[in-house]
Amino acid sequence: MKYVAIDHETDFESWRNRARALALNAIPPDEVIWTVRTGTAEIFEESLLPTIESDVTFRVAPAFIELAQDAILNRSPGRFALLYRLLWRLRSQPGLLEAATDADVMSVQKLVKDVRRDEHKMHAFVRFREFGKGKDARFIAWFEPTHYIVEKAAPFFERRFADFLWSILTPDRCAHWDGHKTMFTEGITKSAAPSSDPLEDIWRTYYSSIFNPARLKIAAMQKEMPKKYWRNLPEASLINSLIADAARQSQTMIDREASSPRAAVQHRASAVPMTGQTNHSSESLSRLRDEAASCRACHLWKDATQTVFGEGPQHAPIMLVGEQPGDKEDIAGKPFVGPAGQMLDRALEDAGIDRTKVYVTNAVKHFKFVPRGKIRLHQKPNAPEIKACRQWYERELASVKPKLVVALGATAAQCVFGKITQIGKNRGHVIDVSESLKALVTVHPSYLLRLPDEDAKLREYRQFVSDLKLATAYQK
Ligand code: URA
Question: What angle do CA 321, 323, 328 make, to 5 degrees?
Fold first, then answer.
């Protein structure tokens, strides 16, 4: 038996060098015990690990390296052995990674999925608190990741909070951004992390103002925001009391809706942030949503806060397709809740369409932007990004089976028809897509927001409402 120690928990290079040496010396996986370097393991390794010629090497598929680099960040103690077993088998079975039912392949994919999910949770649930004033101000967050993801997650915070000095403290590693680069130091205990908190009240006020009791689904909420994260979220201290109060608040909202025709539309703009919760109940849509949460089909996920999936009833007769989430949608995790969403709500109402009865989604499900100081400037998605994301639209379509799809703007039309489709030439009439599906093309609501001239705004708004009115025939 060979005892092999790698240098530290996430040292991929160290694992790779040792795995290569073992494989080249034909030492099979069941004769190797992997461990992380400690005194005793080191002694065993020094005496037993075979040496190899430095110029001897072999190649494995880049896809394996990519999986292994993420899998090694999983806290599972068996990961080094699993990866070596895969490496060993890949040498004689180069297509192994495509064997979706192979136990080792499934295990490595599960490790990777858990790491990526944890990274996504870290992006969503880190809460910075401000310490110091003026040029000495620093934003500090305490976070407890499930896996060893601090280094992997850090570039997101570098891009997102480039203008601030920040530190993220965790029990494994701490990340410190100085405005140019991130430095990593050893982990610390929670008691060593600073705890005074001027920003917590702001988070709590924000959260309670957007909490919507009528849309409360505790199981879904806990799935997206598992309880283990609550202790470090300032707003979490409100959750129990808001849940307890939800039934009473819902009744108040129902009573209010009876006397206020705009209320239904207005409350759509509210959202529980970062829970991914929707008001549909379908398993299949929720499975799609879960899968889309870790979509890496293009690069846009890297800078976005989260995937913004569609929402609405499982069997909505009408599906509205926008371009991509904006800044507000990226944070709330819901489509059309920002300024374009308010314009859309108004026009739908004027057209006689109940937004709660239609399914609303986007052609591209991650926010694309360039940072400009503290602002994130919207960028139009390009053709490869639209194409990479189209699978989700197709799967939403297959799941919801609407009678009519409404494409809002050029990007949506490109997604719906699978090719560049001009709005001016195609708006104003219903188009057959297939025997069971019709489509309508109109402008994007943000086009109306951008028009500088009030007359043009009014004219275009009327035209937009008149296009949407064509959809009312498909509401039932
Ligand atoms: N614009 C879109 O196309 N979709 C949104 O969800 C928001 C703004």
Answer: 105
